[in-house]
Inverse folding.
């Protein structure tokens, strides 16, 4: 622990790391306190751009963050196929065109032979190609921590179970909590505004397809790992009462998403599950992140499993807020907004498009 830095940041994942880097670049002394690298270490690594228009500025800022900090060198592939209904496809095209993300509708005749033979497209569905990319997550974590060390960010380990623990760590410093799904445990006011759910994925062994696939109709994604295996995941509607339950995977759900994949990709009925893993995710009840001040602390959480795309941009926004460059966090992100309702499901980013 260092003596009274300007900021103590709780959380060693993408959000905490990004906030630490952003503030250190602006000349502040920063200490990052982490139990581990957070749920980012469990992520598939896709930089998702299928977002509602009012989150695209964060996506754009996140891209700039990775470029500025030389972390784009950890990208291992670019380009993804997106399957959507015609209305949503049109909306995605419009948003991406406005924000400068290259996306286009493609036909089966544009696909390579392997994809043309294996993908199943139903009536009323569109196929898009967009410039999303895939990080090597382990190397990305290394890049972020190397950058923090170069900026003089103090890195320490500690288990934090309550706000009293945070106060003991801070010793007069400004506190920022970016502890993912655990933020609600530490800050009671967020419990009634957020939803915790299970982010789950599985490795399947079989001949998969060679590109990232996002199926917005059936609600799953697949990421090629190598010629004989892929990572598959989907959105979960199971709301949890504790982040600790997020680490207990649901085998029935794993087989359900595998069935979805087999209906979309010919030949995938021969796939078998090699491994299932999960971790807790958190989001505001309306599907948006939770940023801003709660009492004596500042929070950055609720990225809905899309922290790679949203957290670095949120870090820049929070730094501007801290420095008084903006009076408040935008209303749809402000953690003080009214979220006293009970949604029927977890809203994924593409649900908001």
């Amino acid at each position: 622990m260092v003596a009274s830095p300007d900021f103590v940041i709780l959380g060693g994942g993408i959000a905490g790391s990004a906030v630490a880097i952003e503030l250190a670049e602006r000349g502040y002394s920063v200490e990052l306190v982490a139990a581990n690298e957070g749920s980012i270490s469990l992520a598939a690594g896709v930089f998702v751009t299928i977002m509602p228009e009012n989150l695209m500025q964060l996506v754009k800022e996140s891209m700039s963050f990775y470029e500025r900090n030389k972390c784009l060198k950890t990208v291992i592939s670019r380009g993804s196929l997106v399957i959507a209904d015609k209305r949503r496809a049109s909306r995605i095209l419009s948003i991406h065109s406005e924000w400068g993300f290259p996306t286009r509708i493609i036909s089966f005749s544009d696909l390579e032979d392997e994809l043309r033979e294996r993908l199943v497209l139903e009536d009323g569905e569109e196929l898009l190609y967009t410039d999303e990319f895939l990080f090597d997550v382990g190397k990305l974590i290394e890049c972020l921590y190397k950058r923090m060390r170069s900026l003089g960010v103090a890195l320490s380990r500690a288990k934090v179970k309550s706000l009293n623990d945070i106060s003991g760590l801070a010793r007069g410093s400004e506190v920022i909590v970016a502890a993912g799904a655990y933020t609600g445990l530490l800050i009671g006011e967020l419990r009634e505004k957020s939803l915790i759910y299970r982010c789950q994925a599985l490795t399947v062994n079989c001949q998969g397809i060679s590109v990232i696939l996002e199926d917005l109709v059936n609600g799953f994604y697949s990421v090629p790992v190598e010629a004989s295996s892929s990572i598959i995941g989907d959105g979960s509607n199971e709301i949890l009462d504790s982040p600790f339950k997020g680490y207990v995977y649901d085998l029935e759900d794993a087989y359900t998403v595998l069935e979805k994949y087999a209906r979309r990709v010919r030949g995938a009925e021969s796939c078998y599950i090699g491994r299932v893993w999960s971790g807790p995710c958190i989001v505001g009840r309306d599907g948006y992140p939770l940023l801003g001040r709660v009492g004596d602390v500042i929070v950055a959480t609720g990225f809905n499993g899309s922290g790679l795309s949203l957290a670095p941009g949120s870090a820049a926004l929070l730094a501007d807020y801290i420095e008084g460059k903006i009076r408040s966090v935008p209303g749809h992100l402000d953690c003080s907004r009214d979220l006293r309702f009970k949604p029927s499901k977890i809203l994924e980013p593409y649900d908001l498009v």
Summary: The chain has a mean pLDDT of 89. The chain is about 30% helix and 30% strand. The chain has one domain: 7-352. The longest strand covers residues 272-284.
